Amino acid sequence: MENLFLDERHILGKGAFGIVYKGILTKPDGPTVVAIKTVVNTVDVSYFKVLLSELRVMTNLGVHPNIVNLVGAVTSNIENRKLWMVMEFCELGNVSSYVTFSNGDEKVTSVLYSDLLKWSIQTASGMEFLGEKRIIHGDLSARNLLLTGTKDIKVSDFGLSRQLVYNSSLYVKKSDGPIPWKWMAPEALSDMNFSTSSDVYAFGITLWELFSYGEIPFSEWNYGKEFLDRLKCGDLFPEEPTIGGKDVYQVMMQCWKLDRRLRLSFTELKSIFLKMYNDEIRI
Fold first, then answer.
1. Which of 7, 29, 139, 176 is labelled catalytic?
2. Architecture of domain 4-88
3. Per CATH, the architecture of 93-282 is what?
4. How far is CA 244 from CA 195, 207, 240, in A?
5. Domain-wise residue ranges, the chain
6. Residue 143 annotated as lining a ligand binding site
7. Any catalytic annotation for residue 139?
8. 134 annotated to bind ligand
9. Which residues contact 2 (CB under 8 A, 6 or more apart)?
10. Mind listing the pLDDT tens digit of every residue in the chain (283 residues)?
11. In angstroms, how far is CA 89 from the centroid of its own chain?
12. Annotation-wise, does 144 bind a ligand?
């Protein structure tokens, strides 16, 4: 990718090990703004492997309107732990920051209830697509949902994702590294068992973030034995969020069933929110 320019002055996002820059890719039909994800070269090699794993998943993923699409990668200096993953640019950033900012600043156009319902549909659609590809996301949250300039959702960040082998519906995490414990299903936290159903649990927490305008789930809790024990007993849930009422909260509760086999599917979730959205826009 000789026609790729990385703007080090413009950081789109920064995590424990990764950094996302704004970039420009010049093509025959003109320049295109892109996002370039890389790792700081001083981090542990395990974090570089996470980025490599994300690249592998995205390479095999294909295209979907609600998934951040891979544009390409720069791997020419990979032996020195230098890797650029080039992705489509999402102008409005992550949903968590967007709804929090919108809630706290009158100058920003307010987020409507219909917006939240639309984003719920689009997230479920993207996650349904991942399930069809037998890919477990493993880190679904509002911070990993990006918004395009037209306010459409793109599921992103596949660093913890895994593709299941043909005859398996479960992935057991064996590698070390930070875990998004507030979004993880009980079986994922206690036994590191991940499945599409554990993604559904995380979807429920993500819904709670959206409908509470970016509040942090379980903000009063620290990770420890008491939290895990309460979660495994099936009696620890975030309280009913700011908007959406009991109907939306009941959908969340269906995502948080202790028995993963009783949780809703992403196809069912997409259908439920589509009906809610259609009812809302008719009013």
1. 139
2. 2-Layer Sandwich (3.30)
3. Orthogonal Bundle (1.10)
4. 27, 10, 9
5. 4-88, 93-282
6. yes
7. yes
8. no
9. none
10. 669 999 889 999 887 668 999 999 998 888 999 999 998 777 778 788 888 888 999 998 889 999 999 999 998 888 888 899 999 999 999 999 999 876 665 545 579 999 999 999 999 999 999 999 999 999 999 999 999 999 999 999 988 887 654 455 554 555 556 678 999 999 998 888 889 999 999 999 999 999 999 999 999 999 889 999 999 898 899 999 988 889 999 999 999 999 999 999 999 999 999 999 999 988 6
11. 15
12. yes
